[in-house]
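tokens incoming
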């Protein structure tokens, strides 16, 4: 089934296809800035991209190459290191570790390569050298290097940014040193009062300093995926200036199309405005887990709205997601064990919706329509396989993440076994007493014909 996805540059829905004769699909997703805990808004973007990755794996098995970077040097990371008086590498290692743990909890597949900006200074400097030699970049009076946007006639094609807006947005860094307010920094000269001990040798003729933010993605893409890639993604806020600037740098340096397809997903809102660290209106995954919600419910909520529309986050939506996951788990328990049979067509609507511009709410709707119409008693091994494939492409890890599958403490497990034995021996008084003990431990026991399942009781 061809995957069709909106292309933010072409401004139409287009099929995703590898462009190179080797058939490898080259996919780059701008990663997190590791200066603090990522919030669930950031994870909306990463979970959506995880579904794209899973769709690609299904469509081009063994041929997908997914790269997602870590921004580990910029104003925010340096600012945090200075505020804590700790080395930059220590700060970024801490938040990288948490990011990885959250990705695992949300069942996001690891990218094939996860390059760091600080590990690619040489590559960034090399690109800046080429841009200066070609006349696309110039050294400013303070030793910084800027990209000259008038040297790239196509500048603005992605964002269709009007000149007026350009002046406002690209001018945040040292307008005084630039030839034109729209020009943006490729290299930032060292400033002792801001940069602490963070500096590297710069491009030819420039001062020591650090790379501008945009050049890191251009350099890491060139190194790990090549000069032309098949798909480049990120949240909508990256469209301008970040991606516009990446296109300008890469195309001027390499002389070829940078990305064949662009995709931007919309923001998660909280109280009607974009969730962001600076506004303070955010939750981290850890905040929600501490309130008793499962990471899978968070994943479910993040996929419940169309990725190209804003989605307002509420705790109520998490409650609904927990119930939906319970229903999925019940269904999973009723359709028999996995067998390696080829999937039946009962959940094809899920794949059809995802292939149609990544319609995740449509996919969830198709999933439940199929489940509700289904008679589990008639389930075949092929239906089980179809269900597992639908779960896999949506990334729902029912055994590890759904409420029914939380790790059962050994003591609780022993109580449950004793109760099951008592029930089988028709000692109902003991069985009832043990049910009470389980409840005080926070667990409920759901009896089936041949076995039981333990579920944590909902917290009040
Ligand atoms: P950052 O760590 O700030 O570099 O952002 C990482 C990713 O999260 C980027 O792709 C952003 O576009 C995305 N992002 C930031 N805020 C939100 C939000 N409220 N909703 C969805 N994605 C977001
Ligand atoms: Zn980027």
């Amino acid at each position: 089934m061809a995957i069709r996805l909106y292309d933010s540059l072409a401004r139409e829905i287009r099929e995703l296809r590898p462009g190179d004769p080797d058939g490898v699909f080259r996919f780059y997703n701008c990663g997190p800035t590791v200066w603090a805990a990522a919030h669930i808004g950031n994870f909306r973007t990463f979970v959506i991209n995880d579904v794209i990755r899973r769709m690609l794996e299904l469509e081009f098995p063994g041929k997908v190459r997914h790269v997602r970077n870590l921004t580990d040097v910029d104003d925010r990371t340096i600012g945090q290191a200075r505020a804590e008086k700790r080395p930059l590498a220590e700060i970024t290692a801490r938040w990288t570790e948490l990011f990885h743990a959250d990705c695992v909890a949300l069942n996001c597949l690891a990218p094939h390569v996860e390059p760091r900006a600080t590990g690619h200074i040489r590559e960034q400097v090399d690109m800046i050298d080429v841009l200066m030699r070609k006349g696309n970049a110039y050294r400013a009076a303070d030793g910084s290097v800027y990209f000259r946007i008038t040297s790239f006639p196509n500048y603005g094609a992605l964002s269709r940014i009007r000149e007026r807006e350009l002046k406002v947005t690209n001018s945040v860094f040292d307008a005084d040193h630039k030839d034109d307010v729209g020009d943006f920094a490729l290299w930032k000269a060292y400033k002792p009062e801001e940069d602490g001990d963070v500096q590297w040798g710069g491009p030819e003729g420039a001062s020591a300093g650090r790379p501008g933010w945009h050049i890191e993605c251009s350099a890491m893409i060139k190194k790990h995926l090549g000069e032309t890639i098949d798909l480049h993604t990120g949240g909508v806020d990256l469209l301008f200036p970040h991606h516009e600037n990446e296109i300008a740098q890469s195309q001027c340096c390499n002389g070829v199309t940078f990305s064949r397809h662009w995709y931007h997903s919309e923001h998660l809102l909280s109280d009607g405005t974009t969730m962001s660290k600076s506004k303070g209106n955010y939750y981290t995954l850890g905040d929600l887990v501490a309130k008793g919600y499962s990471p899978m419910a968070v994943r479910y909520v993040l996929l419940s709205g169309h990725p190209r529309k804003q989605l307002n986050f509420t705790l109520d939506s998490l409650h609904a997601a927990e119930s939906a996951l319970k229903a999925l788990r019940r269904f999973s328990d009723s359709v028999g064990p996995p067998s390696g049979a080829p999937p039946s067509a009962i959940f094809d609507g899920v794949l059809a919706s995802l292939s149609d511009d990544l319609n995740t709410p449509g996919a969830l709707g198709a999933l439940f329509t199929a489940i509700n119409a289904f008679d589990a008693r008639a389930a075949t091994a092929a239906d089980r396989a179809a269900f597992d494939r639908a779960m896999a492409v949506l990334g729902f890890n029912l055994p590890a993440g759904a409420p029914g599958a939380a790790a059962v403490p050994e003591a609780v497990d022993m109580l449950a076994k004793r109760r099951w034995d008592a029930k089988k021996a028709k000692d109902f008084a003991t069985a009832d007493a043990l049910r009470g003990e389980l409840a005080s431990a926070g667990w409920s026991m759901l009896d089936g014909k041949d076995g039981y399942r333990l579920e944590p009781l909902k917290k009040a």
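note: The two ends are 45 Å apart (CA to CA).
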